[in-house]
Amino acid sequence: MIATDSKEKNTNSKDLSMGFIGVGWIGRNRMEVMLQNPNLQAAAIAEPFNENAEAARKVAPDTNITKSPEEIYENEEIDAVVIATPSAMHAEQSIKALNSGKAVFCQKPLGRTAAEVREVINASARNNKLLGVDMSYRYTKAFKAVYEVVKRGNLGKIYAVDLVFHNAYGPDKDWFFDIKRSGGGSVMDLGIHLIDLALWSLDFPGIREVNSKLYHKGKKLKSFEEEVEDFAQVSMISEDDTSINLQCSWHVSAGRDAVIEAKFYGTEGGAAFKNVDGSFYDFVAEKYSGTQTEVLVSPPDDWSGRAGLVWVKNLLKDDTYDEQSAEEFLKTSEIIDRIYGR
């Protein structure tokens, strides 16, 4: 049962009343994982497709289901909203939720452009509400181990980072291939995760140079307004001369389902976050010294939805605007704008 006195709910029981907008497989997974927290209750679900709505009802059988997100914004009993809709809707829906006094956890990308992301951040600051984005790979045990090695200085000065994300299959929804609805192709879908991991590990350094080559079906794109890239090669140089290289793709012939890697090279050693045997879900962390390899973390790791759990934990402590994380979202989006020449 949802408490009717919002002040009592927040200060005493600490229960959170949640709204979920979009419950396709990602949104449904995030909802299912979040609802494992006993302090969290699903108050309403907004989903236009009956098949998704019925699947969500099995997870939260007593929850009100509507086709209109407006009902969630207007519900004063709802404390926070989880958004898992197509990318073109993220910024507008996040802003509406924040303006209605609700914290937000949104699937990436938060916006199709840095301008959209900035508008969401301004709404978060203006309404003093916590904003989260599902940068899920940060919360794998394998990457956390690599991050800690980098942050402790065990690798010395990091001078190069190699990032790879090849998906042999690519998206299964038409809107991913429409730049007006998606904001971009494989960089926006896949590369954004690895760019976030690199920048986060390096304390979000200023990036002096960005050079990108984007391809569509083997042809180099000259304009990014008509088609989205299915292959990208990006080279970046930070203000302290660290080289960051990204390669990502849909439908590439890589001999396996996926290649996902983030490798850090320093003056005293190296470290890598890598998927195992082409898996989208199993990762290993390794530390290198010359020709020697030390395995830091191996599967299994049930990390799906963990980013949302961390957001919920933070929300229960303090639901107010977090300037540091907001600035990180913005810096990543600004780099992606530069990759696309915007």
Tell me what you see in this structure.
With about 350 residues, the chain is of the alpha/beta class. The protein has 2 domains: about 5-135 and about 305-325, Rossmann fold, CATH 3.40.50; about 135-300, Dihydrodipicolinate Reductase, domain 2 (2-Layer Sandwich). Helices cover about 35% and strands about 25% of the residues. It has 11 helices and 15 strands. The protein has helices at about 5-15, 25-35, 50-60, 70-75, 85-100, 115-125, 140-150, 180, 185-200, 305-315, 325-340; strands at about 15-20, 40-45, 65, 80-85, 105, 130-135, 160-165, 205-215, 220, 230-240, 245-250, 260-265, 270-275, 285-290, 290-295. α2 runs parallel beside α3 (about 50-60). The termini are far apart.
